[in-house]
Amino acid sequence: MPLMFLRRFARRLWVRVALFALLAVVVSVAATWITQFVPDRLSERIGPDAVMPVLSILASSMLAVSTFSLSIMVSSHRAAAGNATPRIHRILLEDTTTQSVLATFIGAFVYSLTSIILFRADIYPEQAAIVIMAVTVAVVVLVIVAMLRWINHLSTLGSMDDSIRTAYELARKSLINLAKNPAFGANPLTDDTVLPNRLTPVPAPESGFVQLVDVAALQACTEGEAGAGRLIYIDRPPGRHVLTGQPLAHVSGDVTPDQIRRIAHCFVTGDLRSHEQDAEFGLLVLSEISSKALSPGINDPGTSIEVVTRLETLLWEYAIADHKTPPQQYPNVFSPVPSAERLIDAGFAATARDGAGVIEVAVQLRQALLELANAPRMDIQSAAQAMADRALSYADAALPLPVEKDRLRATQL
Q: What pTM does this model have?
């Protein structure tokens, strides 16, 4: 869990920018110390008069470029949220290319401004000019590379293709993690799991979506003298919504109020769903893109067809993945595993409803579901066939022409 929190913190836009700016200040201040190692003959060749104009140009230009780049980023994210789905905005904020470029621009501005201030305050000795010039040349090279990356990135930023690709990669990563470790190292909690007669609920301290579950910390709560022999059964896995006072989990045996609070703190809740441990979220984002493309205001069945194809690919790769049961790292914890029905429903339910009246979309959706109905996994097969039957019922009620209904029913693999 600490590593996951660190990753979540590092993906925030301001973190990388702040680190780069801090590095720029450190480099500027360290130039005074580095000066003592520079030979006098070399330091006499470049003085402050040669460095100051370059620093001034860099500071003024980077301020303008940073402001302009931020406005482009905001406009692109709003366009993506308007065209695709509002959920895509949260994903795009974690774009490493955008973060690196903005960090370079703002860091170059902070570095040049700091160096100018130190020169003007006579804190730098004249011999420091050669060091500042060398660092400035390196910063200029970084800025040029960042600009080239930014130009290439702007060609797709905020476009529908970029939104679909980003959501697809997110869903693919989540499904791979789900296939490798379906219960986060705990025991899968299924209908066949025998529950103890005496269970104590662990109430949620606040309402929200469960974002993260620290299974290792839950296991620790079942060890030692205070927790020996205790078992924990998770009721609300990541992605589920919980209200204040509703059970996050149930615990066997005698539990003190302090122990219940400790277990409750192993669950992280928030106002929004996150993708770290929620495999359904990525599929849902793609599904929302497809559904929105079918709205009368947009009327873009081609986008919906592309999303259906990508969802078919994702779930097929999940079905054929090696689902070997991993060794149980946390034997005293039981966690529900997202069922095939939930995954199929998250990916295709909205398109089956909203695309029922568009024959092109209905045919593509039926083909995709019939393909998944032949997947190696029985649960995927049954879930896909059930969704295909539901989509056919939607289409029977929505398609205006009998010939279109006949065409859809005749659709085969």
A: 0.83
